[in-house]
Structures are given as C-alpha cells and as structure tokens.
TrEMBL record:
<protein>
    <recommendedName>
        <fullName>DNA 3'-5' helicase</fullName>
        <ecNumber>5.6.2.4</ecNumber>
    </recommendedName>
</protein>
<dbReference type="InterPro" id="IPR027417">
    <property type="entry name" value="P-loop_NTPase"/>
</dbReference>
<keyword id="KW-0413">Isomerase</keyword>
<dbReference type="GO" id="GO:0005737">
    <property type="term" value="C:cytoplasm"/>
</dbReference>
<dbReference type="GO" id="GO:0005524">
    <property type="term" value="F:ATP binding"/>
</dbReference>
<dbReference type="GO" id="GO:0003677">
    <property type="term" value="F:DNA binding"/>
</dbReference>
<comment type="similarity">
    <text>Belongs to the helicase family. RecQ subfamily.</text>
</comment>
<dbReference type="GO" id="GO:0043138">
    <property type="term" value="F:3'-5' DNA helicase activity"/>
</dbReference>
<dbReference type="GO" id="GO:0005694">
    <property type="term" value="C:chromosome"/>
</dbReference>
<feature type="domain" description="Helicase ATP-binding">
    <location>
        <begin position="1"/>
        <end position="100"/>
    </location>
</feature>
<dbReference type="InterPro" id="IPR014001">
    <property type="entry name" value="Helicase_ATP-bd"/>
</dbReference>
<dbReference type="GO" id="GO:0000724">
    <property type="term" value="P:double-strand break repair via homologous recombination"/>
</dbReference>
<dbReference type="InterPro" id="IPR011545">
    <property type="entry name" value="DEAD/DEAH_box_helicase_dom"/>
</dbReference>
<dbReference type="GO" id="GO:0009378">
    <property type="term" value="F:four-way junction helicase activity"/>
</dbReference>
<dbReference type="Pfam" id="PF00270">
    <property type="entry name" value="DEAD"/>
</dbReference>
<keyword id="KW-0238">DNA-binding</keyword>
Amino acid sequence: QGIESLKYCVIITSPKHVLNDWRFLELWKLKKFVNRLRSFVFDEAHCISQWSGDFCPEYTEVGRLRWLLPGHIVFYAASVTLPSHVLSHIKSILQMRSERTREI
C-alpha cells in the first residue's frame, strides 16, 4: 500500500519479486506510479550475469521490465567488479543499447 500510494522514493527488492509478485505486476500498470519513476537500479549487477539461467531464471528475464515500464525510466547497473564479458552479458539481459549506455 505504501508503495502504491507513492509514500516511498526508494524501493529495494529482487528481480524475483519485480517480475513474479502480483503486487508489483499491478504496480507496473498504474500510471501514477510509473510516471513518477525516474530510474531502476540493479545493485550487485554482476549477479544478473552469474545467477541467470537455470540457477535463478528471474535474473535472465529481468530485461522484460523494458517492456513493462515507460521508456523514460533509466536503468543503472552497479557493481564494483564488472569485467567486460560480464558487462556485455548484463547489457544484453537488461536490453541496454550501447549508444545509450555509459560506464562510470
């Protein structure tokens, strides 16, 4: 209820809940909610690459958020350790286009 009523400006959750919990699936349909979103941050982003596949299929499918959320929402992938092959895999899963991606 607190999330839906826009009480919070930061929501911390896992890909498992974002894609499979009915409450989040309903939130993605609420215009008042998604219009206020500015960014989606994936902390420990290397886990998206390492855990995707059979171990945790939700991590493979987290890129579906691109289709559930409006285009103005920026995706951030944060991690201390992102070798180039892992970063490429994460960009693929999250459907991040190279021309719109910055590394810091």
